[in-house]
Write a structure and sequence with these properties.
alpha+beta; 4-stranded antiparallel sheet; 289 residues; single chain
Length: 289
């Protein structure tokens, strides 16, 4: 429905359209007329929604902080899952992965050559030298947050340590590329350039995603994209930056037994960090890390 200048804005702010989103919508329309992919209103988060996501992120961060305090060689990944479940529920939240499309646990724990979606188990024990990604997602009052961190267990080899550090740098490069009225492809291009410059490869098939009112929303965020392509970065667009960087080739496969865990095809190590951001009028705001 076409809004008049004096109608209430579509965002629910209660303000007149002309005083709220009208100028932004007109700018978006100019890009759309040039053939640029633009986000629909439903993907743009309002200030109230962003505050809701921030409150969810408080719990998400607390989970990863607590894992960081306790993680050690000899710990099982089931113990990590228990920490996340207890912290999340203890703070009034819900672990988003639990029973999501059949996923059986509250968190993903991916070790060494596991790219993502590792399933916690009391039979998997961390050993000295491992690297592990702990991917945590939270629902609080209907709002989602999502982030992951890498942890290095004990005496980690220089090769693994460098992979973890460069992957973190890739995320920061992607973050620096987030600019209002830029393109989503700019983010992936910055990530991929830094990874390949350091001798690594970036997983093509799995990427980031929009988030906020649902666990996974549009847009899908690839990290092997070209600059100047993809969706327009409009203020309010909220998504994750979470490249999966492999020490070897980019090819991957899924565990046929559990249907979830993704591995590197060549058995090389993989690392991933994840942050959640929203595009603002002057850059971005970090929602969860």
């Amino acid at each position: 429905m076409k809004l008049g200048p004096n109608d209430a804005c579509w965002c629910g702010s209660g303000r007149k359209y002309k005083k709220c989103h009208m100028m932004q919508d007109e700018k978006v329309r100019l890009f759309k007329d040039k053939g640029v992919i633009v986000p629909p209103h439903k993907l743009l988060k309002t200030p109230d929604m962003i505050e809701g996501m921030k409150r969810s992120a408080v719990i998400n961060r607390a989970c990863l902080d607590e894992v960081g305090k306790q993680i050690r060689a000899g710990m099982t990944t089931e113990e990590i899952d228990k920490i996340v479940y207890e912290v999340t529920t203890g703070m009034g939240g819900i672990p988003a992965p639990l029973n999501y499309e059949g996923f059986p646990k509250s968190v993903c724990t991916s070790i060494n050559d596991e790219v993502c979606h590792g399933i916690p188990s009391d039979e998997i024990e961390l050993i000295d030298g491992d690297i592990i990604n702990v991917d945590c997602s939270t629902i609080f009052n209907g709002y989602f947050s999502d982030s992951s961190r890498m942890f290095m267990i004990g005496d980690v080899s220089p090769e693994r340590r460098r992979l973890v550090e460069v992957t973190r740098e890739c995320v920061m490069k992607g973050l620096e590329a987030v600019k209002p009225w830029g393109r989503l492809g700019d983010v992936g291009a910055a990530v991929n350039e830094h990874a390949t410059k350091n001798g690594y490869s970036v997983v093509r098939e799995i990427g980031g995603h929009g988030i906020g009112l649902e666990f996974h929303e549009d847009p899908w965020v690839g990290f092997t994209t070209k600059a100047g392509t993809g969706m327009l970065l409009v203020p309010g667009l909220t998504f994750t930056i979470e490249p999966m960087v492999n020490a070897g080739e980019a090819d991957i496969f899924c565990d046929e037994d559990n249907g979830w865990t993704i591995y590197t095809e060549d058995g090389s190590d993989s690392a991933q960090w994840e942050i959640m951001i929203t595009v603002t009028e002057d850059g971005y705001e970090l929602i969860c890390d």
